[in-house]
Design goal:
Elements: H1 2-32, H2 34-37, E1 41-44, E2 47-51, H3 88-104, E3 128-129, H4 131-135, H5 138-145, H6 149-158, E4 160-161, E5 172-174, H7 175-187
Antiparallel strand pairs: 1-2, 3-5, 4-5
Length: about 190
């Protein structure tokens, strides 16, 4: 009986700590840093054009494209497709994305396409791509905008976020921020 009482006491204590106290602490931190809790809005000319931590849909050739989204970039219903990598329907979707990428990026070999450009992330809202995924799009964007590929490579370099302390995480490029810099560069 004493053991059962101890077990119930531990479970109730953990329930209170993990479900109530932890939730209130995280909510409180969010209130201290409201811009971070509200999605890092990005403004252009006084209007919100997107959120730095939520993927945006770019389909025009004059912009860099981000990862595909299985939820059409809808933050209210984020999630993956739940298809396994050998699912025939999933393979058909990825095949169509590869074909579309090749049509818009002539001269690229199928084997050179980074997987992130044809597969969606777990949330369907990934705002970042690798520098390699950005660089492979340079010829298309340069042609569409009639600007120098060197300028685009410089923009990618300037928008590449390095790993934390040089160790933790991959190099990444935020697609929204890169495209906004691209628009600013094109206006000059």
């Amino acid at each position: 009986m004493k053991t059962l009482r101890n077990i119930i006491g531990i479970h109730l204590s953990l329930l209170i700590v993990c479900c109530i106290i932890y939730t209130l602490v995280i909510w409180g931190i969010g209130q201290i840093f409201p811009s971070a809790a509200n999605g890092y809005p990005v403004e252009k000319n006084g209007k919100i054009v997107g959120y730095k931590n939520i993927g945006q849909k770019f389909t025009l050739d004059k912009y860099f494209w981000g990862r595909p989204s299985s939820v059409d970039y809808n933050a209210a219903s984020s999630g993956a497709s739940n298809y396994g990598p050998s699912n025939p329907e999933y393979l058909k979707i990825v095949g169509a994305r590869i074909d579309s990428f090749l049509v818009h990026n002539p001269g690229i070999k199928r084997s050179d396409i980074p997987a992130e450009m044809v597969t969606s992330s777990g949330s369907g809202l990934d705002p970042d791509i690798s520098p390699k995924a950005a660089l492979i799009q340079v010829p298309r964007v340069a042609r569409a905008r009639e600007i120098s590929e060197d300028l685009l490579r410089d923009l990618i370099e300037n928008n590449t976020e390095r790993p934390f302390l040089g160790l933790f995480g991959p190099e990444k490029v935020n697609v929204l921020m890169l495209n906004l810099d691209l628009d600013r560069a094109a206006e000059k």
